[in-house]
Amino acid sequence: MTPIPRISTRGYYDLSNGKTLKTNPYYLYPKKDFKKLTNSKELTIMIHGLRNDRAGAVAKVLLAKNRLRKLGYSHPVVGFSYDSNTTGAHLVKHAKHALAVGQSIAKKNGRNLGLFIEDFKSSSPDTRIRLMGHSLGSQVILSTLEYLSKKKQNIGIIEAVYFFGASITEDIPSSKKFGKILQSIVNKKIINHFAPSDEVLIWADNEKYVKGCLGLNGAIGNPVSKYHQKLVKPKNHRFASYAEVLKSFP
Questions:
Q1: What's the pLDDT at 140?
Q2: How far apart are CA 118 and CA 201, in angstroms?
Q3: Helix locations, 38-175, DSSP H
Q4: Tens digit of pLDDT for each residue in 227-242?
Q5: What value does the CA radius of gyration of the chain take, rounded to a whole number of Å?
Q6: Are 52 and 137 in contact (CB under 8 A)?
């Protein structure tokens, strides 16, 4: 089987406390595949959620790629693989700590993915980049946009953003700080696929692990004009279920 191209920061952060272990930006696997992506018309990067090891990350890219192909999207789809399989995430008694560590690692990865995007765009300025994020992957995307917003030349650098079961908070698209970032760094649109039936987000909301998930009931307040949302009914919180109910792309 040909390997799935991915940008990775595996082993860069401590899975038990989120501490930074390596400061180099990222590594590419397989490197030669990324060279081939230069001058592509578009590139879509899939970012997985919590509790995904290397194999889980690869599986999510394959799911995204296969679904997008079915929807007629023919451009390259690659993955961003990060340390999200935090210690104890599968045990209820450690869930809160594991999620907090995961959120901290996801936030830190904004710099890593942001650096890749800047590097890639400098070698392939005309490639449109789309970001897809599931669950905690939405936090990686948000932090990436925040990192990119620090430089004026990054305005509109991301073509579009797609959230699925997003675990970031519902006030983000209308907040003064993040609304402005979404509006300026994303060129075309931000699409949030939200599901009031998502059992994991209901649980996170009830336990107050995330106060009001964007992926549960959509945005509150007055979201920026590039933000749009779609009500979906996936079977459960898994990305496979969200991919199944995805009706169009890009």
A1: 98
A2: 32
A3: 54-70, 95-123, 137-148
A4: 999 999 999 999 999 9
A5: 17
A6: no
- Element spanning 133, H or E: strand 128-134
Q: Is 138 helix (H, G, I), strand (E, B) or coil?
A: helix
What is the distance, to the nearest Å, from the Cα of residue 21 to the centroid of all Cα atoms in its chain? Answer: 22
**CA distance linking residue 125 with residue 119, whole number of Å:** 10
Please return the burial class of 48, using the count of CB atoms within 10 Å of its CB with bins 0-12, 13-18 and 19+.
Answer: buried
pLDDT band at 93 (very low <50, low <70, confident <90, very high): confident
Sequence-ordered list of residues with C-beta below 8 angstroms from that of 120, at least 6 positions apart, any chain: 34, 37, 38, 43, 127, 129
Q: How far apart are the C-alpha atoms of 78 and 30, rounded to whole Å?
A: 11
Is the pLDDT confidence value at 167 over 80?
Answer: yes
Q: Give me the domains of the chain, ranges plus CATH numbers.
A: 6-244 (3.40.50.1820)
Within 13 Å, how many C-alpha atoms sit on residue 37's CB side? 27
What is the C-alpha separation between 46 and 114, in angstroms, rounded? 14
User: Please, which pLDDT band fits residue 131 given cuts at 50, 70 and 90?
Assistant: very high
Residue 55 pLDDT exceeds 80? yes
